[in-house]
What does this fold into?
Amino acid sequence: MDGNSKISIFKFNLSEKKYVVKKIIIAIDGPAASGKSTTAKLVAAELGYLHIDTGAMYRAMALKVLRNNISVHDSKKVAELAKVTSVRLVSNGIKVKVVLDGVEVSEEIRLPEVTNNVSAVSTISEVRALMVNEQRAMGNEGGIVLEGRDIGTIVFPKAHLKIFMLANERERAERRKKELVAKGVDITIDDLVKEILERDRIDSEREVSPLRKADDAIELDTTKLTIEQQVEFIVAKAKKIISE
Ligand code: DC
It folds into this structure.
């Protein structure tokens, strides 16, 4: 066989496949500080997918509530405010910006005051309904990695791949501490463990869409894994589904 015929066989095989690549929906859920964001971002980059951090959307809403001096426990007022609030995730292909009412708030939503109040805001059903609509609109064409608490159970119960990430609370506190130290925030590991467990309690005990593992989700305990190992595990599962 000469070189030319090899080339034509290659072309023929490619055209048989019609260049159709399946774009799947990947749902990553799990408790606070379990490594979802870092992992989801890298998985999305590896697959050329969009990364949607749904926690960032609830954080933006919590920031607005705090800025308006409304109590996070006043569900009626928070629900009214949510109706006149726009929370968008805007991607430039490299980074996803969190935009609240037209202004970027990617940094502000990570402040401890927001972290300590976001779980309460996210228990309010009207807030959840607005966020879930937005998340479905962004994700329903596939090619997306969404991370949060209710992606595999409520937002996309038919997601092609569901991962439930876990890590013990000490490890989670250590990871969060590293992030906070880099931002100049000083907090002890014991206080971080308390804060993480309290958020998990509120997220798991709320009535609407509580944090729970979907029956068909794969549990991934990352306590002893490196980020590279976590990413590799999920990407391998995704590629298998894409190629099926
Ligand atoms: O992932 P995170 O820590 O940034 O999320 C912040 C809060 O938002 C979390 O305490 C619970 C809430 N949340 C939620 O209720 N549902 C989601 N899908 C994502 C986050």
